[in-house]
Each structure stands twice: as structure tokens, then as C-alpha cells.
Amino acid sequence: MTVTDADDVDLDLPTYLDVVDASEVLCPSSPIQTSRTLDGELGVKAFIKCENLQRMGAFKFRGGYNAVSHCKDTAKGILTYSSGNHAQAIALASKLHGIPATIIMPKDAPPLKLNATQSYGGAVIFYDRYKEKRDDVAERVKEKLPSDTVFIPPYDHKHVIAGQGTVGKEMIEDLRSKSITLDYLFVCVGGGGLISGISLATKALSPETKIIGVEPEAGNDAQQSLQKGRIVHIETPITVADGAQTQHLGHLTFAIMKQNVSQIITVTDDELIDGMKFFGERMKMVVEPTGCLGLAGMRKMEKAERFQKEVIVGWWCQEAM
Q1: How many of the other CB atoms lie within 10 Å of CB of 177?
Q2: Would the pLDDT of 320 be above 50?
Q3: Which pLDDT value is given to residue 148?
Q4: How many Cα neighbours within 13 Å face the side chain of 94?
């Protein structure tokens, strides 16, 4: 484990205005659902943002499309790395803009995500996530691509963060139109792109809402980072939540999270699996483990604190388990 001090880095942080700009070029919003069963179980009023109904089936399309749209006129190619959802997002966004995309994916990436990435036209290069550092792999690959190839990382990127922030903007505005103000907002955490973007929108539109990040217990680098005030690096965590198998936060995401996130909590793989069962059995939704982080975190925090508040959970699903 290593600790990095991000304070000395000159950062060009996105703002809520970047989120607003992204909302003007992105796809239609996704619906919010509720569950009387869940409300009864926890004694709260929960609102669930269904990013499984977003284009490509995940919120990652928002950030990917927004980032590609900002370099479409100059880029000769797009390069990224991802375990699956960002890979699909960049492949599809690049295809829509007529730009070739090269995607670095782990050898053990879920087959459905791999197949979808390739079907969108992404040229996939594999690496071993447990033996190789993907940043090193990306540098080697980029040397062989055209000089005007643009690298768009999964989360530590101004326009990616702004694109993900449109999820929060939509949720807050939708609920506000129904005279609902949230007390808590639970967001899954991997590299921090989603929670950073959502926090920008939430603090601008609903500053009283507490933002709670949720990550796998086996990979609690974000929790450690906020506690230590530094970016903590860990080994690739072993968890069923493949979308949260990140080794560290980014400089941009960490800086934003330090300002806006109230707390990071962790959940076990068993708690994620329980969440998958709930969504499948009670809401008839197929949800991947990473998409259950928000639900699992809300359940865990409610048992510990017994809050009687309105709660919203952001999540997304895929068909592959």
C-alpha cells in the first residue's frame, strides 16, 4: 500500500457548470423507481435511479460520450482501459462519432461486457489485472497508435466526471419537481467518477443532502483515502464487484470527494449477493454486483443508525453475473 499526496498537483477540476453543459449534449434521462417492500424493510422512503435503462445499460455512457464529444474534431483515435462498462461506453461513443477506439481489458473481464465492447467496434487488447498495471500497459499501447490518439481514463477525467454528474442532476431535479428533498444519497464507488460528478450536482442543487459512498470491503481504498487525507493505493481487490476492482482514486475524484462526500462505508460480497437477490426476486431486475453497492450500503447503514429519512440509491444493472 502506498499513499500519494495530491495537494501539490495542479488540478483542473470540473464544476457544476460542466455538468450542466454535459446535460445539454447527452442522452435521455433514466427513470426512478421505488419499492414498497424495501421501504417497509428499512422504514425509509427509497428512490432508485435505474441506469440499467440508460443507453448501453450503464451510467458510464454518460461520461464516455461527453468526453469523446469534446475531442471528436481532433482525435484520430480513442484509447482507454476498463473492466467492462467504461469499455463499452467508449467503444459506442467513439463509433457514434466515427472515431476508432482501442480498449484495454483484463483477461477475466465478463464475457458479456467483452462481447458488447467488440460489437460496438472496440479493438480489444487484453492484460492481466493481477500482474500488470494498466497504466503501464496503456503507455505501451499508446506508443503504437497514431500520435493524435486521445486517452480517456474511466474516471479521473474532467469531462467523464461531468458526464456522470448528469445522473445526480436528473435525480435531484426529478424529485424536486415532486417536492421531495433527499436526506441521504448512496453512491457506489470504484475510482470515484460517479460519486464525484453526482456530488457536484447535489451540492449545487440540494446542499443539505448527505452523500454516502459505498465500496467493497475487500477494496476500501476510497475509505482509507478520505480517512488519511491522501490517495491510498492497494492491490487489485478480490471481489464479485468487478466494476469496483480499482486500486486507487484519481487526483480529480479525490479532490472533489474530500470536499463533498460525507462518508465512505463498505459492504461484503455476501451483502452484495443479497442485494442481487432482492432486485431479482422483488423488483424483477437483473443487477450486477457492483450495481448493488448502493442498496447494500443503505441497508447496512440503516441497521447501524436506524435513520428515518428519505433515501435515494443510484445503481445500474447488466445481464452478465
Answers
A1: 8
A2: no
A3: 95
A4: 29
Is residue 231 scored above 80 in pLDDT? yes
**Residue 45 pairs with which residues in a beta bridge?**
310
Name the residues annotated as catalytic: 60, 83
For residue 219, give the amino acid letter: G
Tell me the three state secondary structure of residue 186: strand
Q: In the structure, what pLDDT confidence band is assigned to residue 42 with cuts at 50, 70 and 90?
A: confident
| CA dihedral angle for residue 119, residue 152, residue 222, residue 315, rounded to 10 degrees | -40
For residue 148 the three cell numbers come to 493524435
Find where cell 443487477 sits: 287
Q: At a CB cut-off of 8 Å and minimum separation 6, what does 268 contact?
A: 216, 217
Distance separating alpha carbons of residues 266 and 223, to the nearest angstrom: 8
Question: How far lies 78's CA from each of 56, 69, 81, 112, 118, in Å?
Answer: 18, 11, 10, 22, 14
Chain mean position to CA 89: 12
Q: Please identify which residue in the block is written with the cell numbers 435525480.
A: 171
- The model's pTM is 0.92
The answer to whether 155 and 161 are in contact (CB under 8 A) is yes
In this prediction, residues 36-49 reach a mean pLDDT of 90
